[in-house]
Fold this sequence. Notes:
Layout: H1 12-29, H2 33-45, H3 48-55, H4 60-69, H5 72-82, H6 96-104, H7 108-115, H8 120-127, H9 132-140, H10 144-154, H11 161-164, E1 171-173, H12 178-187, E2 197-201, E3 207-212, H13 213-218, H14 225-228, E4 236-237, H15 242-252, E5 256-260, E6 266-271, H16 272-290, H17 302-328, H18 331-336, H19 339-367, H20 376-405, H21 410-440, H22 445-473
Parallel strand pairs: 1-2, 4-5
Antiparallel strand pairs: 2-3, 5-6
Helix pairs in contact: 2-3, 8-10, 15-16, 16-22, 17-22, 19-21, 19-22, 20-21, 21-22
Amino acid sequence: xxxxFKRDLLPKSKIIKKKKKNLEKHQTLGLGPKFIESxxxxxxxxxxxHVRKLVEGLSEYGLANLIEALNHSERTKLVKILGxxxxxDVFPELNDVVQEQVLESLQEKQIVKIANELxxxxxxxxxEHMDEDEQKSIIKKLDPELQYQVQSxxxxxxxxxxxIMSREFVSMPDWWTxxxxxxxxxKNEELPEDFYEIFLTDEKFHPTxxxxxxxxxxxxxxxxxxxxxxxxIVPIDVLTDQEEVxxxxxxYGWRSAMxxxxxxxxxxxxxxxxxxxxxxxxxxxxxxxxxxxxxGDVYKSVFSIFRSRxxxxxxxxxxxxxxxxxxxxFQDIIAQxxxxxxxxxxxxxxxxxxxxxxxxxxxxxxxxxxxxxANTLRMILKEFLVGLNNGILFAVLIALITHFWFPxxxxxxxxxxxxxxxxxxxxxxxxxxxxxxxxxxKVDPAVSSGVFLxxxxxxxxxxxxxxxxxxxxx
Length: 474
């Protein structure tokens, strides 16, 4: 029977101890501004011996932090100096942008050597950012088993469970006895370095349950594995989106989960450490997209950042042109009552702020599955009432302030109060309806919602305020 293996997650206590140990090591070596400057200075001077002495003893996490802290040319120099002595475990710790930059400075045979030392899911993370020809060339040179695993994972859609799962795990037939299981663990020399759960299958390799390693060690030798296993499992389909996977881990409180193909065969495992990476990636991506930026901008060149942001700014330009066109249509009333030009940005700005508050809440709720078809209407009503209450409060405040500023224009106090009430209410509704509509159309609401919101709150604010002014003053 073929056996599959998976390096599972360290227990929480062990993770804390490991991180603490790494932190102590970093503090001892002085991995702070002075240490980084010392490395930079040695690199600029070409003092390779001093560079090696400085970085000697750094953990993979510490070395990854150091590489990220250096500029592009210094990173390249450091990697060349370390050469084949660099720990392969450093590469999965690197930011994606930095990882690409570092790999570009390596020869193909070096990349192959690094990949052969990593788990399949880590190799996939490295290769998926390369062009197809480069991918194929490297995969051909991998160890046969790793080659099969990587090719299989890359065949699944990006951001799916198949891409983030690992092929290395420990599985056993559920009809084995505890004695047989222990004997297998003692005799098998190909087990992962660290694993804490054993996954059980039936004769067709369908998952039936799992057993924590400590539970197995305490069980009686004659007991059958299916009698002591945790049978309450929910296998994840290999095509499931990684966001949905993260949501399932959160809902069920999993440490790990089995991944199955379309025939319900166990083909991989996803652990909580994989999901933490997914959550970090998705949250960072949503935050960046809301502002038209990208994760990793801190490591990119000026031109790369410019190129990635200009599209967003052009889109925003058209949104503001729409708002300006609305103002242009009211030139006559603005020319006659110049104080309207002073007051109208207030209405638009407050609407934008109100809409962005709702937008942030809704985009997060959609990402975490907190907003569902069951509570959507309730959420819309709630945001409408919040917007209405905000509108009433700030309508009164701005009306009083306007009356204090311009006592001779009493009617304008009423106009701006009504405009504020309308725009804040509309802004709250727009803040929830726009991302909901985009999500229904299978468009990432974090990417496009902001532009539509600006167009509605600015244009709507100007139109409402100036339209009421024209109605009441002319």
